[in-house]
């Protein structure tokens, strides 16, 4: 053994003698991870979160979470002499005076945008491949919770600098809380510590953003990964792949290297964005002053669907009684409280909604091809279209300006598209998939045909043999060796490849039965 | 040790690696040093200067403000240009605005609006109007600078009143006050980065990135189109000068964070985050994870 | 064969791809170059684009190198592993049931005590809401119903300058506050947008005959939709546009909401011009300003 190996083995022995980790370590090293690009999406989210923690800690060392007003005498001339909160001034300080401050701030913000984007595409992959089915409903719930928490933490995070644009967003947030029936006004005053704006919201946002939510997110990510580790990852159907096995690369060293390397690649891309593309230039916006406002004020992209819903919603309000003494469910309640409630309720409930219709309580470890489930896929596409239109609706003014059309026209077009597009997209998807499913050889490798031209000008046709996928599925040698050492029936079979879900090992009482992978 | 055996005979190539990496490292260092120093000083100059250099476009022949100590000096164009102006008006403007600029169903009454008001419309190329069904858009001016002054002089001669042509003295302007006033009064339509945006009913607030100081001052005082009018009772001349100064700043703003993406904020940032950020990472993931095995 | 020997052998096999090894080596070297560049940049004072570029090189070099190592220099298999059903063996499940029932049987039978326990914990949970909610802020009381505008309040700008009737041109706009309160936090709620739509007295609605002297119309600047300042005055079409969600208010009919999501017109502040030519409010608003809430009706 080389010195590196000797040292590593020594460390492993050290750990085992104190913690008894040999079995767990061996299972971890040998754990097989299926290989597919669509399985890397969750990793992008995980690595973005790590970058957020890393850059976030740096920012907390400089940010002052206070709305106390001071007069600015710093290095950014266009704001010198103006009154601003200490929060805003400290953000200016980070951006102009702290070495590497601006690049850290921008990496942090880009990482947040990419984090949530990755969560969404990861969620879409899980949805369209049916990977939320038993036994993974728990992870679906955890993942959906992570989406909500990430969105909320992102909103709170970019509101911390207390600039003109994000401050307008906080004003809207106050109005949204206010709109909740019965308790809204109390809740808004409790959260803000007074009527708007108050002086409590930035300090409270700060501790929620750097401590409370990151702790919950980190814990949920830990649970998410632990459950995935324990249940093993799903895999796509293919040669040798069944519901009772997992085919891929071993965790050690192949997957660890690939995943670890991907972390660095993710950091590299986000760092490049952080250095080359400006994001949230708060110095151009100026400090938040409640009677000032800019146009072209959108929230960050992941809140866009809420902003779009607020814009598209017609001016209805539920009113009961006169101004003084009556009651009201205000307009913003419907797009900003009810809609997200229904959205996330639907997301959380989806595995059980599908179970109701499919009556499927089997364990599923093979991913579906989206085209094999026309109903689920077309419903998903339709609902996705709905939210895409909402996202577009957030940028009505910017889009109208870019394409030089009327704002009113843009709004009405999107209002109609909101209902028409999902129906159209969903129906088209369903019809397409139904057609595809009727083609006999859909998705199968096609048999190549060879056409030969003879010297005399004649043609000859012949089918070539299908190119055999030259892939021999192996077993890790230590697994084979381990089994022959401690395994029961000594028949030396390869792991069970039957589709039958009810198969159990015949070595019932034996801890290290041939067909069982010892538990962690 | 075991490693030695495998690397026998590779000693020379190891040396090559070492020399090559030191050389490239040195090259990068040199590039970094060259790249950094001028950029750094430029940034320093910008953030530490109380008043940044004045934009070249403000140097118009009629601007003689620097000697007077006034933030804005208003002057009418030379009366000698009036005959030329009358001629030009008859050719280009009369059909809609009437022979004495009294207006018609197609165009408003220009009498009493002042030379500055007229100068704004012709200097920005909005007039002569390209499409009467749409908001007048900025385009290359049809009239030369002297012709613009001539037309303005003629219309100003028809009736007293209105705004004369302003010459802002940016050397007397307070950039920070200008920022504050702009945020309170102008950003709601033009956006805080002066990028412009679409309002209701097919009206838009234009981008200010190509506007000269004189044009900005003229617009503030005359309130063209749907833009409100900010007279001396609303803004003093000093305040207009301050706002003009801010507009010249925002035309070349501090963009030390990198690509500005058009100054429209989170909309563009979201597209970049998803398409470029997530997109390139998904491409990388495709390389790492590969496709399904049939 | 000894146990250790059994486990050795095949796993020691190395993949020999000299070109790929060179690629990985170059990646790591580029990374070091990037890191050195980063250090030099930092030492020289820092610059965001240069920092980003070198970070990309430094991190990307390591990343591409490690991934290439993990993909091309290490056996990829594919390997297979058994995946057992999550559900445990029947005897384990039975044992779990038995143990659970044993405890439940001893605890669950005392239903009365259980209910009391539930009550105690539940009530204590509820009382915890008080420090975590009620202590956070005051109850709204009448705050949402009132502003600082009273009979005779002078209109002032943010700088405290009193607004005279001669100040605005026709087509002019200004943000104003009640005198004495322009620097207070309540200016967020008090803020009023003052427009001069004409130079004669304007009547926006029946009952408001005296509210718009000399064409001056004052409306609450807090949008009735979600509270943003309604700062866009479209002077020709006499409309106010809110920048957040594009609610449109028709000035001449009392800021009636004509387009977009705003559910109610902007409340109008009745004005008068005193003997010194100063603009003042006749009274406060006749309804709460800003977005709706449960305790208000129409």
Approximate strand percentage of chain B: under 5%
State the CATH architecture of the largest domain in chain A.
Answer: Up-down Bundle
Helix content of chain B: 40-55%
SSE string of chain B:
HHEHHHHEHHEEHHH
Number of separate strands of chain B = 4
CATH class of the domain at 77-163 in chain B: Mainly Alpha
Poorly predicted tracts of residues of chain A: 488-520
Structure report:
The complex is a heterotrimer of chains A (520), B (294) and C (298). Chain A is mostly helical. Chain A folds into 3 domains: 31-356, Cytochrome Bc1 Complex, Chain C (Up-down Bundle); 369-464, no CATH class; 474-520, no CATH class. Chain A is built from 17 helices and 8 strands. In chain A, a hairpin with a 5-residue loop joins strand 7 (449-453) and strand 8 (459-463). Chain B is mainly alpha-helical and 294 residues long. Chain B has a domain at 77-163: Cytochrome Bc1 Complex, Chain D, domain 2 (Orthogonal Bundle). The radius of gyration of chain B is 28 Å and the shape is elongated. The relative contact order of chain C is 0.09. In chain C, the strands form 3 sheets. Chain C has a 5-stranded antiparallel sheet with strand order 2-3-4-5-10. With 298 residues, chain C is of the alpha+beta class. Among the domains of chain C are: 15-72; 148-281, Rieske [2Fe-2S] iron-sulphur domain (Rieske Iron-sulfur Protein). The longest helix of chain C has 26 residues, at 18-43. The chains are: A mainly alpha (520), B mainly alpha (294), C alpha+beta (298). The interface between A and C is large, with 136 and 97 residues.
In short:
The complex is a heterotrimer of chains A (520), B (294) and C (298). Chain B is mostly helical and 294 residues long.
